[in-house]
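Weekly modeling sync, notes
Attendees: S.R. (lead), two postdocs, one rotation student

Agenda item 3: backlog of single-chain predictions. S.R. asked that every request posted to the team notebook include the full sequence so nobody has to chase files. The rotation student volunteered to paste the first one in as an example of the format we agreed on. Action items at the bottom.

Example entry:
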Amino acid sequence: MSRIRLFVIDPQNDFMDMEGAALPVPGANADMNRLAAFVQFMASSIDELIVTLDSHASVGVERTTFWMLADGSAVPPFTQIKAADVVGNTYVPRNVSLRPQVIAYLRALESGGARTLIVWPVHCVLGTRGHNIQGQLAQAIAAWEYATGCICEKVLKGLNPMTEQYSAFRAEVPLADDPRTQINTALMARLEKGSEWLVVAGEALSHCVAASGEDMFSRLSRDRIAKTVFLSDCMSPVAGFEAAGQRFLDEARDRGALVMSSPEAMSRLAVGIM
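Predicted structure, as returned to the notebook:
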């Protein structure tokens, strides 16, 4: 069997399409069940397992709880907010003392050509069930730890409430006074080295997987990208962002990475033919 490092992005309950999830991604629960089967089948070949966890407070700049309309009413989920909207008082931070900081943040976000700020439902709050890893995958990871004596590393992302973070490696607008928001060079270096194949899965394809992949394409070597596999049936896009998810998979192929289903990857990795 081929040796692999498995990199799983945000496989958390709040992204699963099941009762009680805060931000369900259609197909995510089945994705993680397939990934659990992959971990079980490939357990003896997995040298390292790294899981990122979207990790937030209940209030942050990308959350509905941070914002209100000028009349004090709630801002609906999935609203897009630009700096001009805040300058014009269409949308107002509930903590009005943060208004200058928020305007500066949004201007930096827009000037960088990054995504427009979207306010999401409150999700993946530290200490809640929604922050936990999906059940079947969590069990498969625990079984891998027991069988191998290795420990799955959990990497928290999104801890600063004043900047968004989709990518596993950096915030959308890194903050000079918070190293947690800046590029995680140590994690990137670990993905560059080591096992023969780097296998990537997680949620959501259109956002956190795609943003992480873009950073990987810009910083990992061509040789490493050529030995990177994206498990296409272990990641799904946010509803309404299907085209963005497909664009990312197309780009991954163009960059030289492999995109395949988990059964195909298992069969090929098992015999060392990729």
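Discussion: group reviewed the output briefly. The chain has a mean pLDDT of 96.
Action items: rotation student to repeat for the remaining queue; S.R. to check formatting next week.
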